[in-house]
Design a protein that fits this description.
Shape: globular
Radius of gyration: 29 Å
CATH superfamily of the largest domain: Bira Bifunctional Protein, Domain 2
Largest sheet: 9 strands, mixed
Bound molecules: adenosine-5'-triphosphate, magnesium ion
Number of strands: 31
Distance between the termini: 22 Å
Structural class: alpha+beta
Helix content: 25-40%
Length: 570
Protein backbone atom coordinates (compact mmCIF):
# COMPACT_ATOMS: atom_id res chain seq x y z
CA UNK A 1 0.00 0.00 0.00
CA UNK A 2 1.01 3.62 -0.49
CA UNK A 3 2.05 5.29 2.74
CA UNK A 4 0.42 8.54 1.56
CA UNK A 5 -2.95 6.77 1.80
CA UNK A 6 -2.33 4.88 5.01
CA UNK A 7 -3.82 5.85 8.34
CA UNK A 8 -0.64 5.82 10.46
CA UNK A 9 -0.79 8.74 12.91
CA UNK A 10 2.77 8.54 14.25
CA UNK A 11 3.83 10.69 17.20
CA UNK A 12 7.18 12.43 17.53
CA UNK A 13 6.82 12.89 21.30
CA UNK A 14 6.98 10.25 23.99
CA UNK A 15 3.40 9.68 25.15
CA UNK A 16 3.31 10.66 28.83
CA UNK A 17 0.80 8.03 29.93
CA UNK A 18 2.89 5.05 28.78
CA UNK A 19 5.30 3.36 31.18
CA UNK A 20 6.66 0.40 29.26
CA UNK A 21 8.32 0.30 25.88
CA UNK A 22 5.68 -1.69 23.99
CA UNK A 23 2.95 0.71 25.07
CA UNK A 24 5.05 3.76 24.14
CA UNK A 25 6.03 2.38 20.75
CA UNK A 26 2.52 1.19 19.85
CA UNK A 27 1.16 4.66 20.53
CA UNK A 28 4.06 6.43 18.78
CA UNK A 29 3.92 4.20 15.70
CA UNK A 30 0.15 4.69 15.43
CA UNK A 31 -0.72 1.03 16.08
CA UNK A 32 -3.28 1.60 18.83
CA UNK A 33 -5.32 4.39 20.40
CA UNK A 34 -6.91 4.37 23.83
CA UNK A 35 -10.68 4.60 24.17
CA UNK A 36 -11.01 4.20 27.94
CA UNK A 37 -8.89 2.59 30.65
CA UNK A 38 -7.76 -0.80 29.34
CA UNK A 39 -9.84 -0.50 26.16
CA UNK A 40 -8.15 0.17 22.84
CA UNK A 41 -8.78 0.64 19.15
CA UNK A 42 -6.46 -1.29 16.87
CA UNK A 43 -5.44 1.02 14.05
CA UNK A 44 -4.79 -0.43 10.57
CA UNK A 45 -1.15 -1.42 11.18
CA UNK A 46 -1.88 -2.67 14.68
CA UNK A 47 -4.77 -4.77 13.46
CA UNK A 48 -2.56 -6.26 10.75
CA UNK A 49 -0.25 -7.53 13.49
CA UNK A 50 -3.20 -8.98 15.41
CA UNK A 51 -4.27 -10.78 12.25
CA UNK A 52 -0.76 -12.18 11.69
CA UNK A 53 -0.57 -13.53 15.22
CA UNK A 54 -4.12 -14.90 14.98
CA UNK A 55 -3.25 -16.67 11.74
CA UNK A 56 -0.23 -18.36 13.31
CA UNK A 57 -2.41 -19.40 16.25
CA UNK A 58 -5.09 -20.70 13.89
CA UNK A 59 -2.64 -22.75 11.85
CA UNK A 60 -1.17 -24.37 14.94
CA UNK A 61 -4.57 -25.05 16.54
CA UNK A 62 -5.88 -26.57 13.31
CA UNK A 63 -2.73 -28.68 12.98
CA UNK A 64 -3.50 -30.06 16.45
CA UNK A 65 -7.05 -30.96 15.34
CA UNK A 66 -8.71 -27.92 16.86
CA UNK A 67 -11.97 -26.76 15.23
CA UNK A 68 -12.72 -23.06 15.24
CA UNK A 69 -16.06 -21.77 16.53
CA UNK A 70 -17.29 -18.38 17.67
CA UNK A 71 -19.05 -18.38 21.02
CA UNK A 72 -21.24 -15.58 22.36
CA UNK A 73 -19.68 -12.75 24.33
CA UNK A 74 -22.91 -12.22 26.25
CA UNK A 75 -23.42 -15.08 28.68
CA UNK A 76 -26.44 -15.80 30.91
CA UNK A 77 -25.92 -15.76 34.70
CA UNK A 78 -27.65 -19.15 35.10
CA UNK A 79 -24.72 -21.07 33.63
CA UNK A 80 -22.29 -19.32 35.94
CA UNK A 81 -24.56 -20.04 38.87
CA UNK A 82 -24.53 -23.72 37.95
CA UNK A 83 -20.75 -23.84 38.38
CA UNK A 84 -20.80 -21.49 41.37
CA UNK A 85 -18.57 -18.97 39.63
CA UNK A 86 -21.15 -16.16 39.42
CA UNK A 87 -20.22 -15.20 42.99
CA UNK A 88 -16.58 -16.24 42.98
CA UNK A 89 -15.63 -14.12 39.96
CA UNK A 90 -16.32 -10.95 41.91
CA UNK A 91 -15.64 -7.44 40.65
CA UNK A 92 -13.56 -8.61 37.71
CA UNK A 93 -16.72 -9.65 35.89
CA UNK A 94 -18.56 -7.12 33.74
CA UNK A 95 -22.23 -7.71 34.56
CA UNK A 96 -25.31 -6.43 32.79
CA UNK A 97 -29.08 -6.88 32.74
CA UNK A 98 -31.43 -7.16 29.79
CA UNK A 99 -34.79 -5.37 29.50
CA UNK A 100 -36.46 -8.17 31.48
CA UNK A 101 -34.04 -7.65 34.33
CA UNK A 102 -32.24 -10.93 33.65
CA UNK A 103 -28.55 -11.12 34.60
CA UNK A 104 -25.78 -11.56 32.06
CA UNK A 105 -22.06 -11.03 31.91
CA UNK A 106 -19.54 -10.20 29.21
CA UNK A 107 -17.46 -13.35 28.93
CA UNK A 108 -14.20 -13.22 30.88
CA UNK A 109 -13.64 -16.86 29.81
CA UNK A 110 -15.81 -19.55 28.24
CA UNK A 111 -15.75 -22.83 30.20
CA UNK A 112 -19.45 -22.52 31.08
CA UNK A 113 -20.67 -21.68 27.59
CA UNK A 114 -18.64 -24.34 25.82
CA UNK A 115 -19.49 -27.09 28.32
CA UNK A 116 -23.16 -26.20 27.99
CA UNK A 117 -22.87 -26.51 24.23
CA UNK A 118 -21.04 -29.82 24.31
CA UNK A 119 -23.29 -31.43 26.95
CA UNK A 120 -26.26 -30.72 24.71
CA UNK A 121 -24.72 -31.98 21.46
CA UNK A 122 -22.16 -34.67 22.19
CA UNK A 123 -23.53 -38.00 23.32
CA UNK A 124 -21.12 -40.77 22.41
CA UNK A 125 -17.50 -41.71 23.07
CA UNK A 126 -17.20 -41.96 19.29
CA UNK A 127 -17.39 -38.17 19.04
CA UNK A 128 -14.46 -37.69 21.43
CA UNK A 129 -11.85 -36.30 21.72
CA UNK A 130 -13.17 -32.94 20.61
CA UNK A 131 -11.09 -29.75 20.60
CA UNK A 132 -12.96 -26.49 20.03
CA UNK A 133 -11.43 -23.04 19.97
CA UNK A 134 -12.18 -19.43 19.19
CA UNK A 135 -10.34 -16.11 18.85
CA UNK A 136 -12.37 -13.37 20.41
CA UNK A 137 -12.58 -10.39 22.75
CA UNK A 138 -12.59 -11.16 26.45
CA UNK A 139 -13.83 -8.82 29.16
CA UNK A 140 -12.29 -8.52 32.60
CA UNK A 141 -12.71 -5.48 34.78
CA UNK A 142 -9.11 -5.66 36.00
CA UNK A 143 -8.25 -3.90 39.24
CA UNK A 144 -5.30 -2.23 37.55
CA UNK A 145 -5.59 -2.08 33.78
CA UNK A 146 -2.20 -0.88 32.60
CA UNK A 147 0.74 -1.11 30.24
CA UNK A 148 -1.40 -0.75 27.13
CA UNK A 149 -2.28 -4.10 25.59
CA UNK A 150 -0.49 -5.96 28.36
CA UNK A 151 -3.34 -5.78 30.86
CA UNK A 152 -6.52 -4.62 29.20
CA UNK A 153 -10.14 -4.79 30.28
CA UNK A 154 -11.13 -5.74 26.73
CA UNK A 155 -8.51 -7.94 25.10
CA UNK A 156 -8.18 -10.60 22.43
CA UNK A 157 -7.74 -14.20 23.50
CA UNK A 158 -7.59 -17.53 21.77
CA UNK A 159 -9.23 -20.09 24.01
CA UNK A 160 -9.40 -23.79 23.25
CA UNK A 161 -11.28 -26.44 25.25
CA UNK A 162 -10.59 -30.15 25.00
CA UNK A 163 -13.11 -32.90 25.80
CA UNK A 164 -11.78 -36.41 26.28
CA UNK A 165 -13.14 -39.75 27.44
CA UNK A 166 -10.62 -40.14 30.26
CA UNK A 167 -7.43 -38.83 31.93
CA UNK A 168 -5.23 -40.67 29.44
CA UNK A 169 -7.03 -38.87 26.63
CA UNK A 170 -6.58 -35.54 28.41
CA UNK A 171 -2.86 -36.27 28.73
CA UNK A 172 -2.62 -36.57 24.96
CA UNK A 173 -4.63 -33.39 24.33
CA UNK A 174 -2.56 -31.49 26.91
CA UNK A 175 0.74 -32.61 25.39
CA UNK A 176 -0.41 -31.71 21.93
CA UNK A 177 -1.52 -28.23 23.06
CA UNK A 178 1.77 -27.74 24.91
CA UNK A 179 3.56 -28.49 21.65
CA UNK A 180 1.21 -26.24 19.64
CA UNK A 181 1.87 -23.37 22.08
CA UNK A 182 5.60 -23.85 21.77
CA UNK A 183 5.22 -23.68 17.97
CA UNK A 184 3.11 -20.51 18.16
CA UNK A 185 5.49 -18.58 20.38
CA UNK A 186 8.52 -19.72 18.42
CA UNK A 187 6.94 -18.51 15.18
CA UNK A 188 6.14 -15.21 16.88
CA UNK A 189 9.86 -14.77 17.47
CA UNK A 190 9.57 -14.90 21.25
CA UNK A 191 12.14 -16.11 23.72
CA UNK A 192 9.88 -17.98 26.12
CA UNK A 193 9.80 -20.55 28.85
CA UNK A 194 6.92 -22.86 29.86
CA UNK A 195 6.77 -22.91 33.65
CA UNK A 196 4.80 -24.85 36.24
CA UNK A 197 2.04 -22.70 37.63
CA UNK A 198 -0.67 -22.70 40.24
CA UNK A 199 -3.97 -24.31 39.30
CA UNK A 200 -5.85 -23.40 42.47
CA UNK A 201 -8.41 -20.88 41.32
CA UNK A 202 -9.37 -22.63 38.05
CA UNK A 203 -9.61 -26.04 39.70
CA UNK A 204 -7.74 -28.91 38.11
CA UNK A 205 -4.38 -30.49 38.49
CA UNK A 206 -1.56 -29.68 36.11
CA UNK A 207 -0.96 -26.32 34.48
CA UNK A 208 1.85 -24.51 32.69
CA UNK A 209 2.19 -20.85 31.88
CA UNK A 210 4.12 -19.78 28.81
CA UNK A 211 6.27 -16.86 29.84
CA UNK A 212 7.92 -14.45 27.39
CA UNK A 213 11.13 -13.40 29.12
CA UNK A 214 11.19 -9.61 29.68
CA UNK A 215 12.19 -7.31 32.52
CA UNK A 216 8.87 -5.51 32.18
CA UNK A 217 6.95 -8.76 32.86
CA UNK A 218 4.56 -8.73 35.77
CA UNK A 219 5.33 -12.34 36.71
CA UNK A 220 8.45 -13.67 38.32
CA UNK A 221 9.75 -17.06 37.35
CA UNK A 222 12.41 -19.27 38.78
CA UNK A 223 14.36 -21.97 37.00
CA UNK A 224 17.13 -24.43 37.61
CA UNK A 225 19.89 -24.75 35.05
CA UNK A 226 20.84 -28.14 36.46
CA UNK A 227 17.56 -30.08 36.32
CA UNK A 228 15.48 -27.73 34.04
CA UNK A 229 12.83 -27.21 36.73
CA UNK A 230 10.95 -23.98 35.94
CA UNK A 231 8.01 -22.44 37.78
CA UNK A 232 6.16 -19.27 38.53
CA UNK A 233 7.47 -18.04 41.91
CA UNK A 234 3.86 -18.18 43.14
CA UNK A 235 3.98 -21.91 42.61
CA UNK A 236 7.57 -22.90 43.42
CA UNK A 237 7.46 -24.85 46.70
CA UNK A 238 9.61 -24.12 49.75
CA UNK A 239 10.00 -27.44 51.49
CA UNK A 240 9.80 -27.93 55.27
CA UNK A 241 13.36 -27.15 56.44
CA UNK A 242 13.06 -29.94 59.07
CA UNK A 243 14.88 -27.86 61.68
CA UNK A 244 14.92 -28.38 65.41
CA UNK A 245 12.02 -27.40 67.60
CA UNK A 246 13.08 -25.62 70.76
CA UNK A 247 13.00 -27.75 73.96
CA UNK A 248 10.71 -26.58 76.78
CA UNK A 249 13.63 -26.01 79.14
CA UNK A 250 15.13 -23.55 76.67
CA UNK A 251 11.99 -21.42 76.51
CA UNK A 252 12.29 -18.12 78.35
CA UNK A 253 9.50 -16.33 80.17
CA UNK A 254 7.04 -14.60 77.87
CA UNK A 255 7.34 -10.86 78.31
CA UNK A 256 5.19 -7.93 77.17
CA UNK A 257 7.42 -5.04 76.10
CA UNK A 258 6.59 -1.51 75.08
CA UNK A 259 7.47 -0.78 71.44
CA UNK A 260 6.14 2.73 70.87
CA UNK A 261 5.68 3.92 67.27
CA UNK A 262 7.32 0.73 66.06
CA UNK A 263 5.16 -1.11 63.56
CA UNK A 264 7.05 -2.58 60.63
CA UNK A 265 9.17 -5.70 61.09
CA UNK A 266 12.29 -3.64 60.24
CA UNK A 267 11.53 -1.15 63.00
CA UNK A 268 10.62 -3.83 65.53
CA UNK A 269 13.81 -5.78 64.85
CA UNK A 270 15.94 -2.65 65.12
CA UNK A 271 14.21 -1.43 68.28
CA UNK A 272 14.53 -4.79 70.04
CA UNK A 273 18.01 -5.44 68.61
CA UNK A 274 17.11 -8.79 67.10
CA UNK A 275 17.47 -10.21 63.62
CA UNK A 276 14.32 -10.09 61.45
CA UNK A 277 14.71 -13.86 61.15
CA UNK A 278 13.93 -14.10 64.86
CA UNK A 279 10.57 -12.37 64.63
CA UNK A 280 7.14 -13.39 63.37
CA UNK A 281 5.11 -11.45 60.83
CA UNK A 282 1.34 -11.67 61.39
CA UNK A 283 -1.05 -10.98 58.52
CA UNK A 284 -4.84 -10.99 58.66
CA UNK A 285 -6.89 -12.32 55.78
CA UNK A 286 -10.51 -12.86 55.09
CA UNK A 287 -10.95 -16.31 53.59
CA UNK A 288 -14.55 -16.87 52.39
CA UNK A 289 -15.59 -14.24 54.94
CA UNK A 290 -13.78 -15.89 57.85
CA UNK A 291 -10.83 -14.09 59.46
CA UNK A 292 -7.54 -15.98 59.47
CA UNK A 293 -4.14 -15.08 60.89
CA UNK A 294 -1.25 -16.12 58.68
CA UNK A 295 2.26 -16.21 60.15
CA UNK A 296 5.60 -16.15 58.37
CA UNK A 297 9.11 -15.53 59.62
CA UNK A 298 9.80 -11.77 59.89
CA UNK A 299 12.25 -11.71 56.95
CA UNK A 300 9.91 -13.63 54.60
CA UNK A 301 7.16 -12.62 52.23
CA UNK A 302 3.80 -14.36 52.44
CA UNK A 303 2.62 -16.10 49.24
CA UNK A 304 -1.13 -15.49 48.91
CA UNK A 305 -1.61 -18.23 46.32
CA UNK A 306 -0.17 -20.82 48.67
CA UNK A 307 -2.26 -19.47 51.53
CA UNK A 308 -5.45 -19.66 49.51
CA UNK A 309 -4.68 -23.24 48.45
CA UNK A 310 -3.83 -24.33 51.97
CA UNK A 311 -7.10 -22.87 53.23
CA UNK A 312 -9.05 -24.24 50.28
CA UNK A 313 -10.75 -20.84 50.09
CA UNK A 314 -12.68 -19.65 47.04
CA UNK A 315 -12.09 -16.00 47.89
CA UNK A 316 -9.11 -14.67 49.81
CA UNK A 317 -8.53 -11.01 50.54
CA UNK A 318 -6.46 -8.98 52.95
CA UNK A 319 -8.85 -8.07 55.76
CA UNK A 320 -9.77 -4.41 55.64
CA UNK A 321 -8.49 -2.09 58.34
CA UNK A 322 -11.94 -1.46 59.85
CA UNK A 323 -12.67 -5.15 60.27
CA UNK A 324 -9.21 -5.77 61.74
CA UNK A 325 -9.68 -2.96 64.25
CA UNK A 326 -13.12 -4.17 65.34
CA UNK A 327 -12.34 -7.91 65.55
CA UNK A 328 -8.75 -7.74 66.79
CA UNK A 329 -9.13 -4.61 68.89
CA UNK A 330 -5.87 -3.25 67.59
CA UNK A 331 -4.26 -1.79 64.47
CA UNK A 332 -2.33 -3.82 61.92
CA UNK A 333 1.26 -3.13 63.11
CA UNK A 334 0.80 -4.80 66.50
CA UNK A 335 -1.11 -7.95 65.59
CA UNK A 336 -0.08 -11.33 66.89
CA UNK A 337 -1.38 -14.86 67.51
CA UNK A 338 -1.38 -14.88 71.31
CA UNK A 339 -4.70 -14.89 73.19
CA UNK A 340 -6.82 -14.65 70.07
CA UNK A 341 -9.66 -16.90 69.20
CA UNK A 342 -9.02 -16.75 65.49
CA UNK A 343 -7.80 -19.48 63.19
CA UNK A 344 -3.99 -19.32 62.90
CA UNK A 345 -1.95 -20.97 60.20
CA UNK A 346 1.79 -20.63 59.90
CA UNK A 347 4.65 -21.24 57.55
CA UNK A 348 6.87 -24.28 58.28
CA UNK A 349 9.73 -22.05 59.41
CA UNK A 350 7.69 -20.57 62.25
CA UNK A 351 7.64 -24.01 63.90
CA UNK A 352 11.40 -23.82 64.43
CA UNK A 353 11.47 -20.36 66.00
CA UNK A 354 12.24 -20.12 69.70
CA UNK A 355 11.98 -17.15 72.04
CA UNK A 356 10.72 -15.06 69.19
CA UNK A 357 8.97 -11.69 68.84
CA UNK A 358 5.25 -11.32 67.99
CA UNK A 359 2.76 -8.46 68.09
CA UNK A 360 0.76 -8.23 71.34
CA UNK A 361 -2.62 -7.17 69.89
CA UNK A 362 -2.23 -4.01 71.88
CA UNK A 363 -1.15 -0.73 70.31
CA UNK A 364 2.48 0.02 71.14
CA UNK A 365 3.38 -3.45 72.48
CA UNK A 366 5.04 -6.68 71.37
CA UNK A 367 5.76 -9.94 73.15
CA UNK A 368 9.32 -11.23 73.34
CA UNK A 369 10.28 -14.84 74.17
CA UNK A 370 7.18 -16.15 72.46
CA UNK A 371 7.29 -19.87 71.60
CA UNK A 372 4.78 -21.34 69.15
CA UNK A 373 4.43 -24.67 70.96
CA UNK A 374 3.76 -23.01 74.29
CA UNK A 375 2.17 -19.63 73.64
CA UNK A 376 -0.20 -19.87 70.71
CA UNK A 377 -2.37 -22.33 68.82
CA UNK A 378 -1.34 -22.94 65.26
CA UNK A 379 -4.03 -24.94 63.50
CA UNK A 380 -1.65 -26.07 60.79
CA UNK A 381 1.82 -25.48 59.43
CA UNK A 382 2.47 -25.47 55.72
CA UNK A 383 4.34 -23.85 52.85
CA UNK A 384 3.19 -20.23 52.94
CA UNK A 385 6.12 -18.15 51.81
CA UNK A 386 7.55 -16.83 48.55
CA UNK A 387 10.66 -18.61 47.30
CA UNK A 388 13.79 -16.45 47.51
CA UNK A 389 17.17 -16.09 45.84
CA UNK A 390 19.14 -18.23 48.26
CA UNK A 391 16.61 -21.07 48.34
CA UNK A 392 17.72 -24.32 46.71
CA UNK A 393 15.92 -25.83 43.71
CA UNK A 394 12.90 -27.66 45.17
CA UNK A 395 13.58 -30.59 42.84
CA UNK A 396 17.34 -31.14 42.82
CA UNK A 397 18.66 -28.85 45.54
CA UNK A 398 21.02 -26.93 43.23
CA UNK A 399 21.13 -23.18 42.57
CA UNK A 400 18.12 -21.30 41.19
CA UNK A 401 17.96 -18.44 38.70
CA UNK A 402 15.23 -15.79 38.76
CA UNK A 403 13.79 -13.86 35.79
CA UNK A 404 10.76 -11.79 34.95
CA UNK A 405 8.19 -12.95 32.43
CA UNK A 406 5.06 -11.92 30.56
CA UNK A 407 2.38 -14.62 30.70
CA UNK A 408 1.43 -14.98 27.05
CA UNK A 409 -0.42 -18.27 27.41
CA UNK A 410 -1.53 -20.94 29.81
CA UNK A 411 -2.55 -24.58 29.46
CA UNK A 412 -4.69 -26.32 32.09
CA UNK A 413 -5.82 -29.82 32.91
CA UNK A 414 -9.28 -29.18 34.29
CA UNK A 415 -10.32 -32.81 34.79
CA UNK A 416 -14.03 -33.10 35.58
CA UNK A 417 -14.55 -29.86 37.52
CA UNK A 418 -16.84 -28.33 34.90
CA UNK A 419 -18.29 -31.51 33.43
CA UNK A 420 -19.36 -32.45 36.95
CA UNK A 421 -21.01 -29.16 37.88
CA UNK A 422 -22.62 -28.84 34.44
CA UNK A 423 -23.34 -32.54 34.06
CA UNK A 424 -21.51 -33.05 30.76
CA UNK A 425 -21.60 -36.79 30.11
CA UNK A 426 -21.16 -39.21 27.22
CA UNK A 427 -22.07 -42.86 26.76
CA UNK A 428 -19.07 -45.21 26.76
CA UNK A 429 -18.68 -48.44 24.73
CA UNK A 430 -20.90 -50.26 27.22
CA UNK A 431 -23.61 -47.65 27.03
CA UNK A 432 -22.68 -46.34 30.49
CA UNK A 433 -22.70 -42.64 31.30
CA UNK A 434 -19.29 -41.12 32.03
CA UNK A 435 -18.10 -37.59 32.76
CA UNK A 436 -16.12 -35.88 30.05
CA UNK A 437 -12.56 -34.99 31.03
CA UNK A 438 -11.63 -31.44 30.09
CA UNK A 439 -8.69 -29.14 29.49
CA UNK A 440 -8.57 -25.44 28.65
CA UNK A 441 -5.86 -23.51 26.89
CA UNK A 442 -5.56 -19.71 26.47
CA UNK A 443 -3.30 -17.42 24.47
CA UNK A 444 -3.38 -13.66 24.97
CA UNK A 445 -3.26 -12.57 21.33
CA UNK A 446 -3.15 -8.84 22.05
CA UNK A 447 -0.74 -9.34 24.96
CA UNK A 448 1.51 -11.40 22.65
CA UNK A 449 1.73 -8.39 20.33
CA UNK A 450 3.00 -6.31 23.26
CA UNK A 451 5.39 -9.07 24.36
CA UNK A 452 6.94 -9.28 20.89
CA UNK A 453 7.75 -5.57 21.02
CA UNK A 454 9.18 -5.88 24.54
CA UNK A 455 11.72 -8.29 23.05
CA UNK A 456 12.27 -6.63 19.67
CA UNK A 457 13.05 -2.92 19.66
CA UNK A 458 15.87 -0.40 19.76
CA UNK A 459 16.14 3.34 20.42
CA UNK A 460 14.59 4.10 17.02
CA UNK A 461 11.51 1.92 17.25
CA UNK A 462 10.09 -1.55 16.73
CA UNK A 463 11.92 -4.40 14.98
CA UNK A 464 9.24 -6.85 13.82
CA UNK A 465 10.17 -10.48 13.24
CA UNK A 466 9.59 -11.14 9.53
CA UNK A 467 6.56 -13.40 10.01
CA UNK A 468 4.76 -10.81 12.17
CA UNK A 469 5.62 -7.59 10.28
CA UNK A 470 2.63 -5.66 8.85
CA UNK A 471 4.63 -5.06 5.66
CA UNK A 472 7.90 -6.83 4.99
CA UNK A 473 9.42 -4.02 2.94
CA UNK A 474 9.13 -0.26 2.67
CA UNK A 475 10.38 1.47 -0.46
CA UNK A 476 11.64 5.01 0.07
CA UNK A 477 12.19 7.19 -3.00
CA UNK A 478 14.37 10.02 -1.62
CA UNK A 479 13.10 12.67 -3.99
CA UNK A 480 9.46 12.69 -5.06
CA UNK A 481 10.17 15.27 -7.77
CA UNK A 482 12.77 13.19 -9.57
CA UNK A 483 10.86 11.22 -12.20
CA UNK A 484 13.64 8.69 -12.77
CA UNK A 485 13.67 7.79 -9.06
CA UNK A 486 9.88 7.80 -8.75
CA UNK A 487 9.43 5.62 -11.81
CA UNK A 488 11.85 3.00 -10.59
CA UNK A 489 10.31 3.00 -7.09
CA UNK A 490 6.83 2.60 -8.57
CA UNK A 491 7.99 -0.24 -10.82
CA UNK A 492 9.67 -2.02 -7.91
CA UNK A 493 6.53 -1.57 -5.82
CA UNK A 494 4.40 -3.20 -8.50
CA UNK A 495 6.87 -6.01 -9.04
CA UNK A 496 7.21 -6.87 -5.35
CA UNK A 497 3.45 -6.67 -4.86
CA UNK A 498 2.90 -9.00 -7.82
CA UNK A 499 5.35 -11.51 -6.39
CA UNK A 500 3.15 -11.73 -3.29
CA UNK A 501 5.30 -9.67 -0.94
CA UNK A 502 3.62 -7.22 1.44
CA UNK A 503 5.23 -3.93 0.54
CA UNK A 504 4.69 -0.28 1.42
CA UNK A 505 5.71 2.58 -0.84
CA UNK A 506 6.50 5.78 1.04
CA UNK A 507 5.31 8.21 -1.63
CA UNK A 508 4.65 11.09 0.80
CA UNK A 509 5.98 14.52 -0.05
CA UNK A 510 8.28 14.42 2.97
CA UNK A 511 12.03 14.73 3.44
CA UNK A 512 13.91 11.42 3.21
CA UNK A 513 14.96 11.84 6.85
CA UNK A 514 11.34 11.88 8.00
CA UNK A 515 10.57 8.75 5.98
CA UNK A 516 13.61 6.95 7.41
CA UNK A 517 12.57 7.82 10.96
CA UNK A 518 9.03 6.58 10.42
CA UNK A 519 10.29 3.39 8.76
CA UNK A 520 12.45 2.63 11.80
CA UNK A 521 9.63 3.47 14.21
CA UNK A 522 7.06 1.26 12.46
CA UNK A 523 9.63 -1.53 12.22
CA UNK A 524 9.52 -2.80 8.60
CA UNK A 525 12.15 -5.58 8.37
CA UNK A 526 13.61 -4.14 5.13
CA UNK A 527 13.91 -0.61 3.75
CA UNK A 528 14.85 -0.06 0.13
CA UNK A 529 16.15 3.42 -0.62
CA UNK A 530 16.04 4.65 -4.18
CA UNK A 531 18.25 7.72 -4.59
CA UNK A 532 21.39 9.11 -6.15
CA UNK A 533 23.17 5.77 -6.52
CA UNK A 534 20.28 4.53 -8.60
CA UNK A 535 20.73 7.36 -11.05
CA UNK A 536 24.52 7.09 -11.10
CA UNK A 537 25.09 3.32 -10.99
CA UNK A 538 21.68 1.67 -11.21
CA UNK A 539 21.96 0.54 -7.61
CA UNK A 540 19.68 0.78 -4.58
CA UNK A 541 20.43 0.56 -0.88
CA UNK A 542 18.79 -2.09 1.28
CA UNK A 543 18.71 -1.57 5.05
CA UNK A 544 18.12 -4.54 7.31
CA UNK A 545 16.25 -3.19 10.32
CA UNK A 546 17.31 -5.95 12.72
CA UNK A 547 21.06 -5.79 12.14
CA UNK A 548 21.42 -2.25 10.86
CA UNK A 549 23.34 -3.65 7.85
CA UNK A 550 23.31 -1.72 4.55
CA UNK A 551 23.60 -3.58 1.33
CA UNK A 552 24.03 -2.12 -2.13
CA UNK A 553 22.31 -4.14 -4.79
CA UNK A 554 21.91 -3.84 -8.56
CA UNK A 555 18.40 -2.61 -9.25
CA UNK A 556 17.51 -5.64 -11.38
CA UNK A 557 18.60 -8.00 -8.56
CA UNK A 558 16.48 -6.41 -5.82
CA UNK A 559 13.36 -8.56 -6.12
CA UNK A 560 15.24 -11.85 -5.97
CA UNK A 561 17.41 -10.54 -3.12
CA UNK A 562 14.28 -9.61 -1.11
CA UNK A 563 12.62 -12.94 -1.84
CA UNK A 564 15.70 -14.85 -0.69
CA UNK A 565 16.04 -12.73 2.46
CA UNK A 566 12.41 -13.22 3.46
CA UNK A 567 12.63 -16.95 2.80
CA UNK A 568 15.80 -17.28 4.93
CA UNK A 569 14.44 -15.20 7.79
CA UNK A 570 10.96 -16.65 8.16
P1 LIG B 1 -2.98 -12.72 34.51
O1 LIG B 1 -2.44 -13.63 35.58
O2 LIG B 1 -1.91 -12.02 33.73
O3 LIG B 1 -4.07 -11.82 34.99
P2 LIG B 1 -4.68 -14.87 33.81
O4 LIG B 1 -3.88 -16.02 34.31
O5 LIG B 1 -5.81 -14.36 34.60
O6 LIG B 1 -3.68 -13.66 33.46
P3 LIG B 1 -5.83 -16.57 31.79
O7 LIG B 1 -7.18 -16.72 32.33
O8 LIG B 1 -4.85 -17.68 31.95
O9 LIG B 1 -5.19 -15.20 32.34
O10 LIG B 1 -5.97 -16.12 30.28
C1 LIG B 1 -5.23 -16.65 29.19
C2 LIG B 1 -4.29 -15.63 28.60
O11 LIG B 1 -4.98 -14.39 28.30
C3 LIG B 1 -3.19 -15.21 29.54
O12 LIG B 1 -2.14 -16.13 29.51
C4 LIG B 1 -2.80 -13.85 28.99
O13 LIG B 1 -1.88 -13.99 27.93
C5 LIG B 1 -4.11 -13.29 28.45
N1 LIG B 1 -4.68 -12.29 29.37
C6 LIG B 1 -5.27 -12.51 30.56
N2 LIG B 1 -5.71 -11.37 31.10
C7 LIG B 1 -5.38 -10.39 30.23
C8 LIG B 1 -5.57 -8.97 30.21
N3 LIG B 1 -6.20 -8.35 31.21
N4 LIG B 1 -5.14 -8.27 29.14
C9 LIG B 1 -4.51 -8.90 28.13
N5 LIG B 1 -4.30 -10.22 28.08
C10 LIG B 1 -4.72 -10.96 29.11
MG1 LIG C 1 -3.24 -17.49 33.38
Amino acid sequence: MRVSQMFIPTLRQEPAEAEIISHKLMLRAGFIRKSSAGVYTYMPLGYKIIKKISEIVREEMDRANGQEVLLPIIQPAELWQETGRWDVYGDEMFRLKDRHNRDFCLGPTHEEIITDLVRGEVKSYKQLPMLLYQIQNKYRDERRPRFGLMRGREFIMKDLYSFDVDEAGLDISYKSMYQAYSNVFKRCGLEFSPVEADSGAMGGSTTHEFMAIADSGEAEIVYCKTCQYAANTEKAPCNDPQGEVIQSDQMKVLELVETPEVQSIEDVAEFLKVDKKDTVKTLVYEADEQLVLALVRGDRELNEVKLQNLLGASILEMADAGKVASEMGCEVGYLGPINKDIKVIADYEVKYLGNTVVGANKAGYHYVNANPARDFNVESYGDLRMIEKEDPCPKCGKELTFARGIEVGQVFKLGTKYSESLNAKYLDENGKEQLMVMGCYGIGVSRTMAAIIEQHYDENGIIWPVEIAPYKVVIVPVNEKDTEIVEFAEGLYTELTQSGIEVALDDRKERAGVKFKDADLVGYPLRITVGKTYKEYGEVEINIRRTGERITEKSEQVVSWVQAYLEDNK
